[in-house]
Design goal:
The chain has helices spanning 50-58, 78-87, 129-132, 148-160, 180-190, 200-204; strands at residues 2-10, 20-26, 46-47, 64-68, 91-96, 111-116, 140-145, 169-173, 195-196. By secondary structure, it is α/β, with parallel strands linked by helices. The protein has a 9-stranded mixed β-sheet with strand order 3-1-2-4-5-6-7-8-9, covered by helices on one side. The structure holds iron/sulfur cluster.
């Protein structure tokens, strides 16, 4: 598999936020979100075997593993990696752009964190309603919003796809661009059961650093 980095940090962007987590960041993503903070993972990286990643994850001392990107769904060996992590007894999170179907053979014991891309990302044409309809209560939908228009679009779109009742939804502000307090006010005013979260790792660590 093509891997940009592995590191141990605090999970910062899901309902697992706050827990120590071992991250495996894959290389390559065809999207170009306007606010992407991991452009360094678009190219480069190194070839790693599934076995070497499993060994490293096993030795990481954490029961929570996140495979992120880049875009993990374009990695052919993702199902094998995830199966191996689950067999180690790990809780596995996979963060994906929402632009690709669930890979064949991928265990649904892993928790999918699927981005829905509001217009402010510039990538809303990548959204795949069919993918979102395959999600369940163990998964979650994450919307990164740049402004009020993005927030309103997210609620309206997930409503129109019939998803708001079935899958947990988190909304987070674009770091340094959208005021979290304003987002909190929009959530409260909406009356919707969505969870606001900030990118906790960027509060705890230097947001300019890689591997946090
Ligand atoms: S999907 Fe993720 S990795 Fe790809 S451009 Fe968007 S934010 Fe960056």
């Amino acid at each position: 598999m093509r891997i940009t980095e592995t590191f141990r940090s605090i999970q910062g962007e899901s309902r697992f936020a706050g827990w120590p987590c071992f991250f495996i960041r894959t290389t390559g993503c065809p999207l170009r979100c306007s606010w992407c903070d991991t452009a360094y993972a678009f190219t480069g990286g190194e070839e790693r075997t599934v076995e070497s990643l499993l060994t490293e994850a096993h030795g990481s001392g954490t029961g929570l593993i996140e495979v992120t990107g880049g875009e993990p769904f374009v990695q052919e060996e993702l199902p094998a990696l995830v199966r191996g992590l689950l067999d180690q007894g790990k809780t596995v999170l996979i963060e994906t752009s929402g632009g690709f179907p669930i890979p064949e053979g991928l265990s649904r014991e892993a928790h999918l964190i699927v981005d829905v891309k509001p217009p402010g990302s510039g990538m809303d044409h990548w959204n795949k309603p069919d993918l979102f309809r395959k999600l369940g209560p163990g998964d979650e939908i994450k919307a990164v919003v740049a402004n009020r228009a993005d927030f309103d679009w997210t609620i309206r779109t997930l409503d129109s796809w019939g998803l708001m009742e079935d899958v947990p939804v988190t909304v987070s502000p674009v770091f340094g661009e959208c005021d979290p307090r304003e987002l909190a006010a929009w959530v409260l005013a909406s009356g919707r059961h969505v969870r606001i979260q900030i990118q906790l790792h960027k509060v705890l660590f230097d947001p300019a650093l890689r591997g946090v």
